[in-house]
Amino acid sequence: MTHWRRAVVEIVVIGLAAVMAWIPLRPDVVETWFSTGLYPPLQQIVTSLSNVVPVALLDVLCVAAIAGVLWILTRAVVEVRRVRRVGPVINALRVLVTSAAVVYLVFLLLWGLNYRRLPMSERVELTTGAVDPAAVEKLGVETVEQLNALHAEAHRDGWISSPLEDEALRRGFVSAQVALSDVQPAAPGRLKRTMFGPYFRWTGVDGMINPFGLEVLSNPDLLPFERPFVAAHEWSHLAGYADESEANFVGFLTCMKGSVATQYSGWLFLYWQVSSEVDAEARGRLSKSLAEGPRRDLQAIATRLRTGELPWLRTVGWQVYDEYLKANRVEEGIRSYGAVLTLIVKARFEPDWTPVRRTQAKP
Ligand SMILES: [Zn+2]
Questions:
Q1: What are the tens digits of pLDDT across the range 45-97?
Q2: How many A from CA of 205 to the centre of ligand 1?
């Protein structure tokens, strides 16, 4: 490629990435063209393909990216020493910046634009006004009742180690999606192990999706009763619900619409959420009314987190994720996780946890 042609390509790619990072896109346009247009068929293909690859594509991509960067830099340094000019280093930097711009554009086109789609509040009917703390505690009471009631049967039925093979959870995932949108339901992903497993353990991360392979990566230490909800949460991301509170919401509905064992997993998740939201007194009341079985399971989760975590790395890791969410226009950052309670408390449900859809999205 001639010099000027290469420069034009670089300017166009970097400029496009900068424009896409800053331009305000209308959520209804993103919803129509991307989240319910281009994205669903793309997700079906990419996730179905990554499901048959036994290793995490993210690991392969990261190793390739690190090797590529090292190769470009090493070659530049060797050249600089040979020609005794800084030209090769500048060239290398141009290649790296352009590559970063390409990676960002691919991220947006494969998944990242979902951060800018219509929010759940445009999809389901929500009551107006602030969340009533009494309603949150009431949800907590229901959570405890459900945990106490379901514990024995859930443990008797047990949990399939691969949530992808759990027919009830898959059915729940389809039914939760159908309740929220008219597009073809997303394909669920296999929970994969990754070389980042130790990082998940140290930072207390349960799982993530790889936006470049639309695959699910999970913490290797998850307990059997945690796996259905973690899978359902990550599948919800695959279904284009990028926001954490929305993925928690769809993940919770998925568990509710599955089996007793997946429901138990969903309620365990909700117990954590409620108990971190209510005041100390209410937390004490809820904790006291837990039966022996669910209490043991919650303690096992707490022990798993405590023994695996490196507190300083956990703080840094979540700060980085907070910045990432804010860069993707999730203003609440990681606090958006807890906003799931707002959705559950304010949404109106038909029996079987089917949220009432808004008849028409606001223009
Ligand atoms: Zn998530």
A1: 999 999 999 999 999 999 999 999 999 999 999 999 998 888 899 999 999 99
A2: 9
Q: Locate tokens 């950052």: which residue?
A: 333
Angle at 336 between CA 335 and CA 338, to 5 degrees: 75
Whole-number Å distance, alpha carbon 245 to ligand 1 midpoint, is 8
**Number of residues that this document lists for the chain:** 363
pLDDT tens-digit series, residues 149-172: 999 999 999 999 999 999 999 999
Q: How many CB atoms lie within 10 A of CB 276?
A: 11
Surrounding residues of ion ligand 1, Cβ less than 5 A? 244, 247
Q: pLDDT value at position 309?
A: 80
Q: How far is Cα 147 from Cα 150, in angstroms, rounded to an integer?
A: 5
Centre of ligand 1 to C-alpha 78, Å, is 43
Strands (DSSP E) contained in the chain are: 191-192, 207-210, 215-218, 349-350, 354-355
DSSP string covering 24-82: PPPHHHHIIIIIIIIHHHHHHHHHHHHHH-SS-HHHHHHHHHHHHHHHHHHHHHHHHHH
Give 262's contacts (C-beta < 8 A, 6+ positions apart).
Answer: 166, 168, 169, 172, 228, 229, 232, 254, 255
Ligand 1 centroid–CA 83 distance in Å is 49
Angle, to 10 degrees, between the axis of helix 167-180 and the axis of helix 227-238? 40
Q: How far is the CA of 343 from the centre of ligand 1 (A)?
A: 16
> pLDDT, tens digit, for every residue of 280-327?
999 999 999 999 999 999 999 999 998 888 888 778 777 877 788 777
pTM recorded for the entire structure: 0.93
- CA triple 227-246-51, angle to 5 deg: 45
For residue 6, the CA-to-ligand 1 centroid distance in Å is: 38
CB neighbour list of residue 162: distance below 8 Å, 6 or more residues apart: 190, 191
- Taking residues 124-131, what's their average pLDDT? 88
Rounded to the nearest whole angstrom, what is the distance from the C-alpha of residue 178 to the centroid of ligand 1?
A: 20
What per-residue confidence (pLDDT) applies to 335? Answer: 63
